[in-house]
Known about the structure:
This protein is α/β, with parallel strands linked by helices. It has 21 helices and twelve strands. Helix 3 packs parallel to helix 4 (about 90-105) and helix 13 (about 255-265) packs across helix 14 (about 275-285).
Amino acid sequence: MSNLIGRKKEIATLQELYDSNQAQFIAIYGRRRVGKTFLVDEALKEKITFRHAGLSPVDEKGKQNLLKEQLKQFYLSLQLHGMSPSRCPTSWLEAFFMLEKWLIEQDNGEKQVVFLDEIPWMDTPKSGFMTAFEGFWNNWACHRPNMMLIVCGSANSWILDNLVNNHGGLYGRVTYEMKLSPFTLEETEEFFRSRGISFSRYDIVQCQMILGGIPYYLNYFRKELSLPQNIDRLFFAENPKLRDEYDRLFASVFSNPDDMKKIVECIGSKRSGATRKEIAQTTRIAESGNQTKMMKALIASDFATKYLPFGANKREEHYKLTDSFCIFYLKFLRKHESRDPEFWTHNENMQQLVSWRGFAFEEVCLRHISQIKDALGIRGVVSSQSSWSLKGNENEDGSQIDLLIDRDDNIVNMCEMKFYSDTFAVDKDYERTIVRRINLLSGMIPKKKAVRSTLITTYGLARNEYSRAFQQVVTMDDLFIY
């Protein structure tokens, strides 16, 4: 387990479940490339009795008989684990019966770990997979105290709909669900340190802005290269390592990847996201049950989030793109025409990059909201967070606040997030902007509550005659505290 970075809670949980004296059915899900398989391999090293991974729909695209291919691969996995050759199963009922027979032969009373990776890929159309899988667990596996069944998948909505929230034969059968999240800033720093890669925290935050703390992507970094050089190698060089990742990402997780990409591109075009009506107008995917299902799938797979802007009604719910990799791709790669293999290195100070860093930093902050609350000393205070915007008109400018922390102790933290290469200095005009926002917000909240202006930035606040605009300051270092 020495190779694992972070995941301490998950490792302890898997070990506790392994040591239990009852049958366990564990569902692990999370964004593709987040490290689900690696977690199971490392936490239960040399304890896995049988493992199998479904065939990728990306690699198998165009094949006429996906069921036949999936069954053949399952049969080969059984043989690799020592089952005597017989004949390839023709149905999933027969395949799971073969697995049961083989597990009985191997049973010596010790825990038997069955690991089915990328299980959503096995459930091909009209394959009967779910019926057979239900039979495997309900009729046999759940009655064996030494059974530990672990299933993984990147199609989070499939895991949730078919296993965790199943209302049929598997209702209430999952004994433990585990959602694996991307690395935090602290875990990303630990990851780089373990590989001898020396980056400043300023660069680690930028790395998080681009790759979102996904371990698979971080694994491509080379220690002799700077951050810009590594980014060029991954995205802009000749034959870059992650050239096809965006398309593969959607094709491997969703059965309708093109429509999903249309929605992602729509909600990613605005910092505040889009309503269902706006999504329908832009993508021509009607506001229907199908659109609802697609939005739920994007949220479940950690590509997007749904939120209600401060003071808005239910019909104004917004869907916002939150996956850093997708945001970066849409901003710099989808229509990228430059043939410069060192684009990132040569354009570090380009205004487009400077502007992107501003809102990308906001996304990093929103993913570290618990660290922000700790830095503000409000861990024990009940609170909620949202954004707020006010449309301008002929007489008055609009205003937008990307993070409001509404607290039960009658304080509302109005947070400004600034990614800056030095201490941030407030000038006269910006102080006026902050004061105006405080006044506007104060007029919208209950009278018993007070607005507290809060700055979240890299290196802190430069003290001058206007720095009183902020009452509290959270720095980049605070975001690295676990």
